[in-house]
TrEMBL record:
The keyword Secreted does not apply. This is Flavin reductase like domain-containing protein. The lineage of its organism: Eukaryota, Fungi, Dikarya, Basidiomycota, Agaricomycotina. GO terms for molecular function: FMN binding. Residues 73-232 form the Flavin reductase like domain. It comes from the Eukaryota. SUPFAM superfamilies: FMN-binding split barrel (SSF50475). Keywords: Flavoprotein, FMN.
Length: 277
């Protein structure tokens, strides 16, 4: 947990952590409540927490630093964009950001958001604004320390590659290098950029970047060529890490599959659910 870095820890387990299990509430029926008599002991135990009530925070009355700590511990797990970029004069930059997500597959877009201090903008956002190119590299367990090292608050135009121990791999369509150690990398061109200011303020506190993915590089040993289109990635072999609260990283542990409901198959059951007053 965040804030317990001095507590004794077990050695890291190098064995792949991911495995498939059954879903948490395998006997759940359409419309069945998740309460004390819910569809599983887990759901029933969770429902006991309702008795404790909710603590509500009105964001306009809270300090940004306090909101940051609360939000990064509750919005989890967050995927990490390990961004490689170049400054206008060609200095490489490499840094991890967990305000990151897939936006669209048509066109293929990713979003990366950068927060700024009152005195300095993030180097990566400056570079992307100026050169309009970058790569996003997914971080895996075997080299996470090198990626974390790149989160240091080094002066502008410091080349993080040197201290990271990581290797540059030439990109195909953009100038910034991709990370050779990454088994899943994306070459991106700037699609759009939006500076962010608090309501009623002209101060720029963040920048949201949408990147148009021009190429995706998948290492063959993590790629599943199942004959369906261009295949998919094996989560067991990718060993991707995520960000949690504080200095905590997460690894992919277990997964379960729940098919998406098809309306034509469930609409009759929905019609049988008693309407709430």
């Amino acid at each position: 947990m965040a804030g317990t870095r001095d507590a004794p820890r077990a050695d890291f387990n190098p064995e792949p952590a991911f495995q498939y299990t059954l879903q948490p509430n395998k006997d759940w029926k359409v419309g069945q409540p998740f309460n004390e008599s819910g569809p599983s002991p887990l759901a029933a135990e969770w429902a006991k927490g309702y008795e404790s009530g909710w603590q509500t925070f009105e964001t306009g009355k809270e300090k940004p630093a306090d909101l940051y700590r609360l939000m990064i511990s509750g919005i989890i797990p967050r995927p990490i964009a390990f961004v490689s970029s170049l400054s206008a004069n060609g200095t490489p930059n490499l840094a991890p950001f967990s305000y990151f997500s897939m936006v669209s597959h048509n066109p293929p877009l990713v979003s990366v958001s950068f927060t700024h201090s009152p005195t300095r903008r993030k180097d990566s956002s400056i570079n992307i604004r100026e050169t309009k190119q970058f790569t996003v590299n997914i971080i895996s367990e075997p080299w996470v320390e090198g990626a974390n090292w790149c989160s240091t608050d080094a002066p502008y135009e410091t080349e993080e590659w040197v201290g990271s121990g990581l290797t540059k791999a030439e990109s195909t369509f953009v100038k910034p290098a991709r990370v050779k150690e990454s088994a899943f990398s994306m070459e991106c061109e700037l699609f759009s950029l939006q500076d962010i200011s608090p309501p009623g303020s002209d101060a720029i506190t963040g920048t949201l970047v949408l990147g148009h993915i021009k190429a995706i590089h998948v290492r063959k040993d993590v790629w599943i060529n199942d004959g369906k289109g261009i295949g998919m990635v094996d989560p067991v072999k990718l060993r991707a890490v995520s960000r949690m609260g504080g200095a905590t990283y997460g690894r992919v542990g277990e997964g379960f599959e729940i098919p998406r409901p098809v309306w034509s198959e469930i609409k009759e059951d929905v019609g049988k659910i008693p309407k709430k007053e």
